[in-house]
Amino acid sequence: MSLERLIYASRRSAGVDVPALVAQAARHNEAAGLTGALATLEDDFFQYLEGTPQSVEALLRKLLVDPRHSDLKVLERRAIPRRLFGQWRMAHLQWNADTEAIFRIFSPDARLKLRDIDPATCAPMFRAWLALLEGAGPTLKDMNVK
Ligand SMILES: Cc1cc2nc3c(=O)[nH]c(=O)nc-3n(C[C@H](O)[C@H](O)[C@H](O)COP(=O)(O)O)c2cc1C
């Protein structure tokens, strides 16, 4: 089965109920065989999706017309040999000191402007966030982040 990943950034619309959105996404993804994570950074969404090319394409078409966000910019879309978020129908990565520290390590110049991010750093950043989620990551203290 061929697999693809899609990483995009978008601008969150005012008043979006993010926990409800994540719950709905997780339900749909289970049926569609999609996995991934949604990070909420300040006023932006940053999402990593993986699944068959057909299911990724079908979701992208819905995302492009979803009024809960705008200005969707695809940062990376490519074939992958295996899933990264296989255990996660849709993980929610909340913006906090830990997630922000990882963002700054991978993207020191982006100043939280996701549209300026180097696309090559996106997948490794999600990989590091996943390690944080699963408790397997180096702690901030170990990494000596200021
Ligand atoms: C930032 C964001 C992330 C979303 N992520 C997903 C997702 O991972 N899976 C999903 O099925 N829908 C996701 N949605 C919702 C879809 O845009 C769409 O509303 C949903 O798939 C239901 O579509 P349907 O009712 O036409 O089937 C997301 C929406 C937004 C705004």
The total of helices stands at 5
Largest sheet: 5 strands, mixed
Structural category is alpha+beta
Rg of Cα set: 15 Å
Q: What is the oligomeric state here? A: single chain
SSE order, one letter for each helix or strand: EHEEHEEHHH
Keywords:
binds flavin mononucleotide, Alpha-Beta Plaits, five-stranded mixed sheet, alpha+beta, 5 strands
Explain what the structure shows:
This protein is α+β, with helices and mostly antiparallel strands. The chain has a single domain, classed as Alpha-Beta Plaits (2-Layer Sandwich), CATH 3.30.70.100. It is built from 5 helices and 5 strands, in the order E-H-E-E-H-E-E-H-H-H. It has helices spanning 18-32, 53-64, 97-106, 122-133, 140-143, and strands spanning 3-12, 35-41, 44-51, 69-80, 91-94. A 5-stranded mixed sheet has the order 4-1-3-2-5, with helices on both faces. A hairpin with a 2-residue loop joins strand 2 (35-41) and strand 3. Helix 3 packs antiparallel against helix 4. It is globular and about 35 Å long. The site of flavin mononucleotide has 16 residues, from helix 1, strand 3 and helix 2.
Short description:
The chain has 146 residues and is an alpha+beta fold.
Set down the secondary structure blueprint.
Layout: E1 3-12, H1 18-32, E2 35-41, E3 44-51, H2 53-64, E4 69-80, E5 91-94, H3 97-106, H4 122-133, H5 140-143
Parallel strand pairs: 2-5
Antiparallel strand pairs: 1-3, 1-4, 2-3
The structure holds flavin mononucleotide.
Residues 21, 25, 28-29, 34, 38, 45, 47, 49, 59, 62-63, 66, 68-69, 90 line the site of flavin mononucleotide.
